[in-house]
Amino acid sequence: MQSKTDFVSIVVAVCVAAYAAIMLAYLAQYDLGLSTAQTRHLSVLAALVLALPIVVDFLRAGSGNTS
User: Fold this and answer.
1) DSSP letter string over the chain?
2) 36 with 29: CB under 8 angstroms?
């Protein structure tokens, strides 16, 4: 089975995500007045909150294949 995702789509997605991250960091630092350390801590917390359901689902799906 061949993948329908091509290299150009991946590059565009990464560039859009990077641009959004830069704009959000600018907004947090200059418009909201957060320091760099506060922005870093909040981004790590947000990444954990967003990634935790994905990891739990992945582990739940993988545990049924051991038998």
Assistant:
1) ------HHHHHHHHHHHHHHHHHHHHIIIIIS---HHHHHHHHHHHHHHHHHHHHHHHHHHHHTT--
2) yes
4-55 residue pLDDT tens? 768 888 889 899 988 998 898 899 899 999 999 998 998 899 889 988 988 8
Task: Output phi, psi for 4, to 5 deg.
Answer: -90, -5
* Residue 18 in tokens: 């990077």
| Two tokens, residue 1 | 């089975």
- Overall residue count recorded for the chain in this entry: 67
Whole-structure pTM over 0.85, yes or no? no
